[in-house]
Fold:
Amino acid sequence: MGSSSDEAPLKAIIIGAGLGGCAAALALKAQHFDVTVYERLKTFRRLGDSLGLGENALKLLRRWGGQQLYDDLCAIGNQAPDMQIREWGSGRVLAQQPLMDMAGYIGHRGDYHEVFLKATRDAGVPILMDHEVVAFDESKPSITLSDGLEIEADVVIGADGIKSRARELVLGFKDHPRSSGYSCFRAYFPGSIVKGDPKCAELVEKDSVNIWIGDDTHVIQNTLRNGEEFNWILTRKLSHEKDMEITESWFQEGDLDEVFRCIEGLDERIVAAIKRTPSCLDWKICYRDPLPTWVSRSHMIVLLGDSCHAHLPTSAQGASQATESAAVLAICLKLAGRANVPLATRTYEKLRFARTRQSQTNGEDLRDRWHNALKNVKAGREIDPETIKMRNRPLYAFDAEADAMQRWHAVSSQVAEELREGQITPLFGAGSRSATEGVASGVGAASA
Ligand SMILES: Cc1cc2nc3c(=O)[nH]c(=O)nc-3n(C[C@H](O)[C@H](O)[C@H](O)COP(=O)(O)OP(=O)(O)OC[C@H]3O[C@@H](n4cnc5c(N)ncnc54)[C@H](O)[C@@H]3O)c2cc1C
Structure:
């Protein structure tokens, strides 16, 4: 291990300054560790569109960054009190529920990211831009940058996103995405474009969130900045082999003619808005199987966020779960002590796995309930609103730090025994043990 004494603060390297990396920096800094973030990009742009940040994450961020950080993050979010779940063709409201049941606050990813970056820098954590990590030595542990410089630490945290290089090291092989059988077209543009059309102007009069559900398809529409910006996401089941070919990218341009074909018969208000769309992205929703481990064989390189538990958009929890993971990893490192990083990282993955699987599978369950609901109407049955509502609310009451402290003793004792025996049980699949009990079986960790 790269430590010299147990008294100096633990030295942590975080790879990636996305929302997950920043959350990890804040959580570790709150434990007074020596933290540096390495980011390969020269600058960040305002990329992506809407992202949910739930109270489960916000309460942690307030603890680390104070009330101002909490207020700044909440102010970014859509302020509509409720969202409407509507019938595809008529637009009739089938269910209405408080927005806080959905994603908590829905805001622009880039706006949240900017606030996360500022909070990280304000906390005194250096974010070294244009520093790409190209190699690892897991035994030291160390990272090597593209200019050849090698840097050692006590622990290396791979918050390097869906195409993570750290994951390859941890798994020992390249983990390929596979098609989920679903795809999204998504667009984000000024609300003024929609305001100009009386057919759809009502959607941007004030902040709104609407969802239209159809057979094997749904559209989510929301405004941001009180109607100044407009976002829609069309999810559909893919029917052709060719469509399922995977390009995992946030930048692939979509074909609007194809979009128009997919929205035939949809409520004319949202059709009018979509028809005014200047351009859209084509975003294949990929699956990645749950990983058997989030930690390298040396136990000192550990994954966090999309690198190990990416989510479907219908989970609305990708950033929030990354924040929870940050909280738990920091607590484990604190409780284990600098001289015992392996105990910390192995306890962290066991504490986190079942929770992230629950939140991932919530997204799959919701998509399936939406995509099948209208089949009941066709069969002459009314839809029970409860069957199409989002069920994320129970996720929000959770306090990841309190839970980690409460379960630390039991789980770390099991881990200590496994480390002594030199036999770490996998998180998933044959040989997995108690920490993963209650987790939905089958494959399908979603990657968003
Ligand atoms: C461009 C983009 C757009 C997105 N848009 C949405 C959206 O609209 N809605 C939504 O719900 N989610 C979106 N997401 C996903 C969402 O941001 C994540 O689920 C969540 O924030 C947790 O991400 P993360 O920090 O684990 O990974 P990421 O946000 O992917 O961050 C990983 C970071 O690591 C850096 N990195 C990667 N490799 C290296 C390396 N070798 N060396 C140094 N740095 C490295 C990357 O440049 C990146 O900044 C988007 C992600 C991206 C990347």
